[in-house]
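Lab meeting prep.
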Amino acid sequence: MKFQGTDAYIASDDLAIAVNAAIRLERPLLVKGEPGTGKTELARQVASALGMPIIEWHVKSTTRAQQGLYEYDAVSRLRDSQLGDEKVHDVGAYIKRGKLWDAFAADERVVLLIDEIDKADIEFPNDLLQELDRMEFHVYETGETVRAKVRPVVIITSNNEKELPDAFLRRCFFHYIRFPDMEVLKAIVDVHFPGIKERLLTTVLTEFFEVRETPGLKKKPSTSEVLDWLKLILAEDLSPEDLKREGKDMLPKLHGALLKNEQDVHLFERLAFMARGAR
């Protein structure tokens, strides 16, 4: 049972090796990389390729580690006790299972995605250390211990917005998804837009890499953004000649798909002004 990518997901050799190594070691796979490089989609494609269900836990700034285990609704129980509801004697009725509980309780092996772990508080990863290590946790309100029936494949993504604790890193198998080069990006595009003319594709990707490598750019466009840009180019039936940037046209055509803030738009406007002044 090895992951080698799918028809819908181009996985580099080192990424496939990382996935399979993490599965063999029974360690969480920590995947870092720029936004838009396919970290979240990787977990879905691993699940698809290996024939496993996927459970997704999307972390927010307000997410607490405890929510991944379970939440106890003490307020509802108090209210029901005041109303004389018989349900109040069943503590379990006030416990909401979290994503880790769902993964541990599954009868078959699942992929558990913990997405964008770096969005949460710095203590969030440490609070999950024991549960991910031992694959069990205690429910204090009911006195039961929840143990994983089958150890899930755990994939954790991070956009590198904050450093993760060393103790957490030691328990993970780590992989950084590098931004794809021209040839790999062509293969990715071919998955989404098969049959595109080679001359147009080469022009689009050349322009894309020129934009991406412009000095001073605040947010470099990612894989998902070049796919959006190409979709618009095809919809508008633009030719390679239409995409050429020179003089006052330093901004790429349909640049809203690539440039995501006003600072980067102003950067290209300044480059256009400088190009005019140099003439």
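Slide two material, second protein:
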Amino acid sequence: MSRSWNSGHGPACGCCASTRLSRRSFIAGTAAVGTTVVLSGTAAVAQSRSLIDTHHHFYPPRYQKLWLDWEDAHKLPHFPGQVAWTKQKAIEDMEAAGVRTAILSMASTPGVWFDLGAEKASELARECNDYAAEMVRDNPGRFGLFATLSMLDADRTQREIEYAFDTLKADGVGLQTNYGDSWLGDARYRVVFDELNRRKAVVYVHPLVASCCAALSVGTFPAVIEVPHDTTRTILSLLLSGGLARWRDIKWLFSHAGGTMPMMAGRIESFYGTRPELHQFAPDNISGELRRLYYDTANATSAPSMAALLKLVPTSQVTYGSDYPYFRLDQMRDLERLGLDASDLRAIGSGNATRLIPRLA
């Protein structure tokens, strides 16, 4: 019998309809958004197509239509970069920004749900993964794949994992921070993570605005506050549930420099660091568990953000991410201005990604 995890619907409920406005409306209204990147000759030569982008979205045709129709139904504006996205444009923009390889993922809001139910959501996940795998095959060396999992039903999700790794040869899986307000440490996902741990998989995690929390944005767009907080929530969920201790062979990669985790780590340590059962859920102590994780740089390349992240973890745990097409592909320029030495820039730009995914070397 199929092990259903919820009613078959994702978090696309009335209470969080406004959250879809968060990401695209906020970004569409900023001057920083432009997906066609123009680099100076010096920067282009310096980067020389060396970057590996571990945070790169894509839009298969049926998924794109479902998403745009859903936004129309909820009277939400479309993000221009998403509407304009094509496979060829992605490659052209990668060329301009010095990105050699982009790891495709679609773990952003609203996932593959659209109120489809578990069976149809799994079918859509399969279709999206097939589309991305074709991009990988047709453009050798330019793309990798973090396969989408619907996570609405355990048995179907297990079959998606088997297909993604054994047939499509995916580089890892891409998950959301929560599914219907159940964060990744929830016991309902244990069988899935047990299998991913057995496969020593890379598990890339992208945030969204939880349906519980869209109203907490104090007058701004929900993505400004709630997206980074949701990454922190799911990391803490994995930590306190014992998930990080149980799944030692999963290589976790979290978006946006871990959200607010670099600023929250000390507070978490103060509450849980002296618990008598600490080593049951945090064998390396709180700080050690957080240092074992990987974090990307997408929309987190400001000096304060990177300073906080690099105080939390060594450079070896940081990968370059862009969040294309929502943000610029050439954010490496921001990192170059921070005074990091050349070896650190190379590690962030590509070296750490090739340790996570050796075939990219």
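Talking points for slide two:
The chain is about 45% helix and 10% strand.
The two ends are 42 Å apart (CA to CA).
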